Amino acid sequence: MEYRPIRKVVSGNYAAAYAALHARVQVVAAYPITPQTSIIEKIAEFIANGLADIQYIPVESEHSAMAACIGASATGARVFTATSAQGLALMHEMLHWASGARLPIVMVDVNRAMAPPWSVWDDQTDSLAQRDTGWMQFYAENNQEVYDGVLMAYKIAETVNLPAMIIESAFILSHTYDIVEMIPQELVDEFLPPRKPLYSLANFDEPFAVGGLATPNDYYEFRYKIAKAMEEAKRVIKEVGREFGERFGRDYSEMIEKAYIDDADFVFMGMGSLMGTVKEAVDLLRKEGYKVGYAKVRWFRPFPKEELMEIAESVKGIAVLDRNFSFGQEGILFNEAKGSLYNTDARPIMKNYIVGLGGRDFTVKDVKAIAEDMKKIIASGKLDREVEWYHLKR
Question: Which residues form the Pyruvate:ferredoxin oxidoreductase core domain (predicted)?
């Protein structure tokens, strides 16, 4: 069947809901929270209109939502959920359980700043606070990547038997409408066949227990297997991303999307929707004579250390943009990037710019101002400071 995309004007949240529909998700458990709620509302609409054969489980909290997803996934079902901010934090205990049980649950997290003070706007701290739970993390730049990311996440997760998080920006993507090219159901089915579970608690002919006590003699190896699966995920991510590109014309074979690296003095590195602004600014800066490129980190977990090393060997500086902050240290992407390069010969000057916390605007003008700062740093060969809270009120 020839691929002819079905174009719909949808929000990022609706793109996620359509992807779950096309992935033939069997079970959804979720609890409402702004700005995620419309994902689950749209799925409920599909069910009510007879478009989806999905078992929807209403629950009393996000903790219970993930617990229900774990139970359903353990029976062999393809499972989906979505949340934001405090809801994701409430799931924290169960996120460890999902990865430890090797369950390929897919969740969309709509990045929202953590309270207090209360905020419903964009900030990456909620998802990055879960970086050590054993979940893969994909950061979408736009609504198309939300849709594509969910479909690819199921194939990747069900191959390596680890859960995956697709992350989109609050309101910048979740409630903003754009054209999304959707894939005919027959072609999705070819790309994403039914799940073949590692094990199933629904197999009553071969009953067994999951999640029992492991003594010190055994626990260590369980953690090691998760670590190996996360490393294996790098290969699978690239293979699935390449296959997706060959089938549908949108290639995701690189864990870091990059441009203008070969002749750049420095690059902007970041994740998510803010990189759309960076791309526009970089094109304008190139016309003004700046030797600058960009490196958009698509997958934060597993971290693309090898691809970062290749970029670092080619440039003199990296401006790392963090829409998050780890209190007592620095931006989280900056911290990971520095650590990845420590035992290598690639040591470009790196500066961390904290931007856009709580949804504060980050514009092309801001990118240009940071480019001017980086240009001076490259010329002098030294940093004025390692971390800068950009556009603070004075």
Answer: 264-367
